[in-house]
Design goal:
The chain is of the alpha/beta class and about 300 residues long. Helix content is about 35%, strand content about 25%.
C-alpha cells in the first residue's frame, strides 16, 4: 500500500539488475568484527583451536604435539614443557533473514518496506562477498519459505538475489491472509545457521512473540545477530491533523488524524514496539539497527555497520 512514492517500478518492486547494481555501493559497509592482518586463511578468528595464524594460549605439552610449537619462554619460567595453541582464521557464513510477508508491502515514502528489505539484503550479500564470506539465508512470506545454504562466491550472491526477485510474495501479497509465518521462518533459520555465523534479520518485526524470542535468543548464544528494523514513517507517527485517503491499488479508505489522543496513543504504540526490540536486543547482546522507507539503505548501512567497525 502506498500513499506517496516515486513514479517508478523501483518503489514497489525489485529487479535482479537493480540489486546487482548495488555491488558498487558496498564501500564503507563492513561485516568484520575487527581487523585481521592475514587474508589468505580467512578473515575471522574461530573459537575452534588448531594450527592457525593467531596465538590463543599455551598448555602443558602432550605426547604427539608438534615440537615446533613448544613455548620456550613458559618452559624456561616453569621448568616444564608447554606448547602453543592457535586460533584459526577462517571465513564465516553470513545469513540474511528477509521478511516478505504482506505487512512488508506497505510504504508511504519512497518505497515499500519489502523493497527496502531486499535492497538491504543485497548490500549485505555484496559486502559479504567482498571479504570472501559465504552468503545464505531464509526468504519468507506468509505462505512460502526459501532456505538458502551459505555458499561462497559471486554466483551465490546472484542466486540469493534471484530468489529475492522471483519470490511469489511480490505478486501474491494481496491475495493472502496475514499470518505468523515468521515463527516457521525462525525455525528454518536455525536449520541453516552454524555456530560462528553472522545473522542479519530484515523485518518490521510484527508479531515478534515469545516463541520467536526464544529461538532468536538461542541463536544469539553462538552467533553474531543483528536486527534491522524496517518501518515506514506513517507507522511511527500520524501525519498532521486532517483526512487522508489511502489505497492499496484496489480498495480505498480514509483516516482522520485530528484527534490528539488518538495521535498520541498511535505514536506511543510504535515507540513501545521499538523499546521492546531494543530491550530484547540488549538482554541477548544483539545489535539493533533501523531503516525508514524514506532513508537510503546505502547511507544507513554505511553509518551503522561502518561505525560499529570503526570505519
Amino acid at each position: 500500500m502506498a500513499v506517496r512514492a516515486e513514479n517508478s517500478a523501483d518503489a514497489v518492486s525489485v529487479s535482479v539488475q537493480s540489486l546487482v547494481a548495488l555491488h558498487t555501493e558496498v564501500a564503507g559497509i563492513s561485516l568484520l568484527p575487527k581487523r585481521i592482518g592475514a587474508q589468505t586463511a580467512g578473515n575471522y578468528l574461530s573459537r575452534l583451536k588448531g594450527r592457525g595464524m593467531e596465538f590463543a594460549e599455551s598448555r602443558p605439552y602432550e605426547p604427539g604435539d608438534d615440537a615446533r610449537n613448544l613455548h620456550w619462554r613458559v618452559m624456561a619460567r616453569t621448568g616444564k614443557p608447554f606448547t602453543k595453541q592457535f586460533r584459526e582464521e577462517r571465513e564465516r557464513p553470513v545469513l540474511v533473514w528477509v521478511d516478505l510477508r504482506s505487512r512488508m508491502f506497505f510504504g508511504t515514502r519512497v518505497a515499500l518496506k519489502a523493497v527496502v528489505a531486499a535492497r538491504c539484503a543485497a548490500l549485505i550479500a555484496w559486502a559479504a562477498n567482498r571479504i570472501g564470506d559465504r552468503i545464505g539465508g531464509v526468504i519468507f512470506s506468509d505462505r512460502i519459505h526459501h532456505e538458502i545454504k551459505p555458499v561462497r562466491g559471486k554466483a551465490a550472491v546472484l542466486f540469493l538475489l534471484k530468489m529475492l526477485v522471483e519470490h511469489p510474495a511480490w505478486t501474491e501479497h494481496k491475495q493472502v491472509q496475514p499470518g505468523n509465518s515468521a515463527r516457521e521462518a525462525m525455525i528454518r533459520l536455525r536449520r541453516v545457521v552454524r555456530p560462528g555465523s553472522r545473522v542479519i534479520l530484515l523485518s518490521d518485526f510484527a508479531n515478534f512473540d515469545a516463541a520467536m524470542e526464544s529461538n532468536l535468543a538461542q541463536l544469539a548464544r553462538h552467533n553474531e545477530i543483528t536486527l534491522l528494523h524496517i518501518y515506514d514513517a506513517l507507522e511511527a507517527s500520524l501525519p498532521p491533523p486532517g483526512r487522508y485517503r489511502l489505497s492499496d491499488g484496489a480498495d480505498e479508505f480514509v483516516i482522520d488524524t485530528a484527534d490528539p489522543r488518538y495521535r498520541s496513543s498511535y505514536a506511543e504504540k510504535f515507540a513501545a514496539h521499538v523499546a521492546y526490540l531494543r530491550s530484547f536486543a540488549r538482554r541477548h547482546r544483539i545489535s539493533y539497527l533501523s531503516c525508514r522507507t524514506d532513508q537510503d539503505p546505502v547511507s544507513v548501512l554505511r553509518k551503522e555497520l561502518g561505525a560499529q567497525q570503526g570505519i
